[in-house]
Design goal:
mainly alpha; transmembrane; two-stranded parallel ribbon; ABC transporter permease; 532 residues; membrane; transmembrane helix
Length: 532
């Protein structure tokens, strides 16, 4: 396959993907990020803080601040936008068509990598276009320097995005990582990469933080301002007083730093091509051979036990989906709610391995013996994230939406699904609840109750609206991470304490948000049911 055909494949895939709502939503988030990276002079929120100072809003400072913020956001969030390229080819049958052509596996993987990178680079491009607008809007410097604005994006933002694009290809070719497990794993990997990439000894120069920070400290020293090397902070933080200013005209990347940037792309290419060792490129022959080998193994096992192997099984409907008999449909509202709830609980727990339950039990036991009752609540309420993401999505993902759409009272089934999520959330977080009740920590109990209703409500609303499990997984991981890191405004669990009481929103406010989310899910489901 020649280079022109490869580029055409990547561009065609890129054009298809930029039409999706998720792409537009991520672009809007990128624009909002640019505004956060360049806050007003009186703001108490900042992304880039150098010992209580920030640079005057020149092209160099704004370009660097938005480029670093974009590298952090797009490395984590951009992965979830681009990671379904191979899976979409498999679902739509395009992969089968490509398997019948002369397209080689390395060429296919390289095309998907280039497409991923183009999507992420276009998002970085929106940030770069927003940067000069923010400079003019803040009004501290009207001299726009295109080079000072764009160089940080080229050397700080694009190299990590190449690794993100390659990781998305790799994750889609590994069976375990193709599922929701991959979403959770990537969140942890990206968080670790963020922290490592900002350190003084970051591999390959990381995000370029050290180079920019060294240049800023030199400029501040020349202006009579003394700061320590560890006073450089990158990330959304709140400060007691608005930051003071100093003049910084940017930094000039040296040869060693630029060499590290090139190695980023080399490593990304190697990572994207690595799956060629095992990826079958949708070749039906490989699947048939695998199926034949499995059938022969099953027949041999049956003969060894003196019995024929079992016949080929038909696609299975998850347990609980068929729990509504025809007589129940005729009875309509007379159908007992508890039977619906029992069926939804079976659906929610379907296919969960015993190891998952053992780990959940271990977390529960640990919750009874830890000194602080809320210490393990974040662990207890992150472990079931993949199960919560099933709420509102399984009927679509299993192709049963049309069948269940004929059920006479869709609102009752949705409420049963939500109640199953609440029960599951309560069970996984029971240890902190008991500990707080014994200690008469009633504000903590209230916060726990609010969180127990909010989590399944959020999962159900996003699942019903978006009809995919990935959106909740991403949104919840971000909210959970902020709460664990002490951002009280989003603390739905009551783990951020002030004077011994939860410092976040009141339990009533959290419960009200949960009810609004359930109402939104019910409205969407009812509207879809009415248009059938």
């Amino acid at each position: 396959m020649n280079a022109r055909a490869l580029i055409a494949l990547a561009v065609a895939d890129f054009r298809e993907r930029v039409r999706r709502p998720a792409y537009a939503a991520t672009l809007l988030a990128a624009v909002g990020l640019a505004c956060l990276a360049v806050p007003s002079a009186a703001s108490h929120w900042t992304i880039l803080d150098v010992g209580g100072y920030r640079g005057v809003y020149t092209s160099a400072w704004i370009g660097t601040a938005t480029a670093l913020a974009g590298a952090l956001w797009l490395t984590t969030g951009g992965f979830y936008v681009v990671r379904d390229a191979i899976g979409r080819d498999e679902r739509t049958g395009v992969g089968r068509l490509l398997a019948a052509t002369s397209l080689s596996t390395p060429a296919y993987l390289l095309g998907k990598f280039l497409s991923n990178f183009l999507v992420l680079a276009s998002m970085a491009g929106v940030l770069a276009l927003t940067a000069p607008l923010m400079q003019l809007a803040r009004g501290e410097s009207f001299a726009v320097d295109p080079v000072a604005l764009l160089v940080p994006f080229a050397v700080m933002t694009l190299p990590p995005l190449a690794l993100t694009a390659a990781a998305a290809v790799l994750f889609e070719t590994v069976p375990l990582l193709r599922s929701g497990v991959g979403n959770v794993v990537w969140f942890g990997v990206s968080m670790a990469f963020m922290m490592a990439g900002q350190g003084p000894h970051a591999p390959l120069g990381g995000f370029g933080v050290r180079q920019a920070a060294d240049s800023m400290r030199v400029a501040m020293t020349d202006q009579g301002i003394s700061v320590r090397s560890r006073d450089f902070s990158l990330g959304l933080t709140m400060v007691d007083e608005p930051l003071r200013t100093f003049r910084w005209d940017g930094f000039t990347p040296d040869g060693a730093f630029l060499g590290g940037r090139l190695l980023f792309f080399v490593l990304a290419l190697a990572l994207a091509l690595l799956p060629a060792l095992w990826f079958g490129r949708f070749d039906p022959a490989r699947r048939l051979l695998g199926a034949a080998a499995a059938a022969e193994g099953a027949q041999a096992a049956g003969s060894a036990h003196g019995a024929a192997g079992p016949p080929a099984a038909e696609p299975q409907v998850p347990a609980g989906f068929g729990a509504v008999p025809a007589s129940a449909a005729r009875r309509g509202r007379a159908f007992p709610f508890w039977r619906l709830l029992a069926g939804e609980l079976r659906i929610l727990a379907q296919g969960v391995s015993r190891w998952w339950w053992l780990a959940a039990a271990a977390v529960t036991v640990a919750g009874f013996v830890t000194p602080e009752p809320t210490m393990l609540l974040p662990v207890a309420w992150i472990w079931p994230v993949l199960l919560w993401s099933r709420l509102g999505t399984q009927r679509v993902e299993h192709g049963l939406d049309g069948l269940l759409g004929a059920y006479p009272t869709p609102s009752r089934r949705l409420l049963a699904e939500w109640a199953a999520g609440v029960v599951f959330t309560a069970v996984t977080g029971v240890a902190p609840l008991v500990r707080m009740a014994v200690a008469a920590d009633w504000p903590g109990v209230g916060a726990w109750a609010g969180g127990a209703t909010l989590v399944p409500s959020l999962a159900l609303a996003l699942g019903v609206a978006c009809r995919t499990h990935r959106v909740f997984q991403v949104v919840y991981l971000v909210v959970w991470y902020l709460a664990v890191n002490g951002v009280a405004a989003v603390d739905y669990m009551g783990v951020v304490r002030s004077g011994g009481s939860p410092a976040g929103p009141s339990a009533l406010a959290v419960a009200a948000v949960a009810l609004l989310l359930v109402g939104a899910a019910l409205a969407v489901r009812t509207a879809r049911h009415a248009t059938r």
